[in-house]
């Protein structure tokens, strides 16, 4: 041992240190996207060659994305051959649409981001809270004749969850092909989990990315499937932000009531929803859903299968091949807006690029309005949000803090013609770490409906002022320090 310490270590340590320095700095320069973070890691590695390299290996490598890519490397993308006749060709130009769109430049942006065609002839009906969404969803399950696919983040084993279990079990018993997917973390919001209950009722169910949370896998707990999709008989869909839990029913007793929006969808875009479910189901179970019951051949009418007039397209986002798609769509919407942009989201933690895009839009004369919930189930998010708002308010943004229960609604309305709806929040976790599903809709009538809903949400709310956000009194200064510290954790919130 003495010979090893005296003869080998003096030679080995410099070699190991130099090798670690070269490998770690090279990796940081090539892989760390944020310039400031890359510079910081290089400085640490150079100052502490061995310790710095170890710290970078433990804390600096984005294993979340690497793990997501590894998880989904063998996930098969379903072939485009099952598109309905309502789809536009992938290379169609906005001027070639049968129906005019008010934001053709935005069509081009999302064309290139998603590589998925717009669909004609859709009908989109907003459902406010679980009071409207759950009865419509349960009625659709009871009316199913061939297939039901259901994917959600939270599926509680409470009064609402058990009603869905009963409806799904009845459908399965009468011969309907039923498939249910629940996120492995979201399933644990109640105990015992709903997965066991579904299994006892012989309903086919799978968990997305199950993990037992050992310390070395805590990072991977971020890779959550946050999508909310239900498709019945391949032609009727439901999507939005509502999970399956009793708190979303405002008419019922609840210690923690939650406001939200969901949407009933008919038309060719439902196929985008079904394909998204089928890809996730294939990954989780290796079962391919290609039967006619899941992807029926639907004859198109002049306005599509539902005779609706909404032009729509599904947008998938996640820390794999779909990374940053929603961020680019949002930035495209902000750059194409001509009059106003209204955003409702439960968690408003935009990264620097989105903040810059919002400010740039306001500098062009576009009105920006944020509808945020005064109550929140994440106190650190509220504090961090207050650190983001002053810069936006200073440039003219109107920020409304709504009263009443926590509002989990998420929707973006641009001008009077474009609506983005779905599961994604405006925070780094949602836009970079979760698997999300949204739908863009071009339709003036739907946009007006969403404007009316947002008007109702902000009634009685408080309009934030720059004085309240950055006042010089001691209480405000203390609150700003608290918010500034919380903002440091923005990438992890």
The side-by-side strand order for the widest beta sheet comes to 4-3-2-5-6-8-1-9-16-15-14-10-11-12-17
Termini separation: 48 Å
Give the low-confidence spans.
79-96, 214-220, 299-305
CATH class identity of the largest domain: Alpha Beta
Strand count: 17
Say what the CATH topology of the largest domain is.
Endonuclease, Chain A
Helix content: 40-55%
Could you say which structural class the secondary elements and strand pairing correspond to?
Answer: alpha/beta
Distinct helical segment count: 16
The number of distinct structural domains comes to: 3
Which CATH architecture of the largest domain is right?
2-Layer Sandwich
Major pleated sheet: 15 strands, mixed
Mass-distribution shape: globular
> Radius of gyration over alpha carbons?
24 Å
What is the mean pLDDT? 84
Q: What is the CATH H-level superfamily of the largest domain? A: Endonuclease Chain A
Strand content: 15-25%
Describe how the helices and strands are arranged.
Elements: H1 2-31, H2 35-47, H3 49-60, H4 63-72, H5 104-114, E1 119-128, H6 129-142, E2 147-152, H7 159-173, E3 177-183, H8 194-200, E4 205-208, E5 229-232, E6 236-240, E7 258-259, E8 261-266, H9 270-285, E9 310-317, H10 325-336, E10 340-344, H11 352-363, E11 367-373, H12 379-394, E12 398-402, E13 406-407, E14 411-414, E15 418-422, H13 428-433, E16 436-442, H14 444-458, E17 462-463, H15 466-470, H16 474-487
Parallel strand pairs: 2-3, 3-4, 7-13, 10-11, 11-12
Antiparallel strand pairs: 1-8, 1-9, 2-5, 5-6, 6-8, 9-16, 10-14, 12-17, 14-15, 15-16
Helix pairs in contact: 1-2, 1-3, 2-3, 5-10, 6-7, 10-11, 12-16
């Amino acid at each position: 041992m003495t010979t090893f310490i005296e003869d080998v270590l003096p030679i080995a340590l410099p070699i190991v240190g130099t090798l670690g320095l070269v490998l770690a700095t090279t990796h940081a320069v090539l892989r760390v996207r944020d310039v400031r973070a890359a510079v910081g890691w290089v400085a640490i590695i150079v100052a502490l060659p061995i310790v710095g390299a170890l710290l970078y290996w433990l804390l600096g490598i984005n294993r979340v994305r690497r793990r997501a890519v590894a998880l989904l490397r063998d996930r098969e993308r379903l072939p485009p051959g099952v598109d309905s006749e309502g789809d536009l060709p992938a290379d169609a130009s906005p001027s070639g649409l049968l129906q005019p769109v008010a934001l053709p430049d935005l069509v081009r942006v999302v064309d290139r981001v998603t590589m998925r065609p717009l669909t004609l002839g859709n009908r989109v009906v907003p459902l406010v809270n679980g009071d409207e969404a759950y009865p419509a969803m349960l009625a659709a399950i009871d009316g199913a004749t061939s297939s039901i696919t259901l994917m959600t983040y939270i599926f509680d084993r409470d009064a609402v969850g058990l009603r869905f279990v009963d409806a799904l079990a009845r459908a399965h018993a009468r011969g309907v092909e039923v498939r249910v997917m629940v996120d492995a973390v979201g399933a644990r919001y109640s105990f015992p989990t709903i997965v066991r209950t579904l299994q006892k009722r012989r309903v086919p169910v799978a968990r997305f990315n199950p993990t037992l949370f050992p310390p070395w896998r805590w990072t991977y707990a971020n890779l959550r499937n946050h999508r909310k999709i239900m498709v019945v008989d391949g032609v009727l869909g439901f999507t939005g932000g509502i999970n399956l839990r009793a708190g979303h029913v405002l008419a019922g007793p609840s210690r923690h009531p939650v406001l939200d929006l969901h949407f009933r969808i008919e038309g060719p875009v439902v196929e985008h929803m079904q394909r998204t479910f089928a890809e996730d189901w294939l990954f989780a179970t290796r079962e391919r859903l290609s039967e006619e019951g899941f992807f029926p051949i639907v004859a198109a009418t002049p306005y599509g299968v539902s005779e609706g007039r909404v032009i729509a397209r599904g947008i998938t986002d996640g820390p794999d091949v779909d990374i940053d798609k929603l961020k680019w769509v949002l930035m495209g919407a902000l750059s194409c807006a001509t009059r106003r942009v209204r955003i409702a989201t439960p968690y408003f933690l935009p990264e620097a690029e989105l903040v810059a895009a919002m400010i740039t839009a306001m500098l062009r004369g576009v009105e920006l309005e944020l509808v945020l919930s005064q109550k929140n189930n994440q106190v650190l998010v509220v504090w961090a949000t207050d650190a983001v708002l002053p810069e936006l308010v200073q440039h003219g943004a109107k920020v409304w803090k709504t009263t009443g229960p926590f509002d989990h609604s998420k929707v973006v309305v641009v001008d009077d013609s474009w609506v983005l709806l779905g599961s994604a929040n405006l925070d780094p976790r949602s836009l970079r770490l979760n698997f999300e599903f949204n739908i863009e809709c071009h339709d003036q009538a739907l946009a007006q409906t969403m404007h009316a809903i947002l008007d109702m949400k902000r009634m009685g709310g408080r309009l934030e002022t720059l004085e309240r956000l950055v006042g010089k009194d001691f209480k405000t200064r203390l609150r700003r320090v608290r918010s500034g510290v919380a903002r440091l954790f923005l990438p992890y919130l």
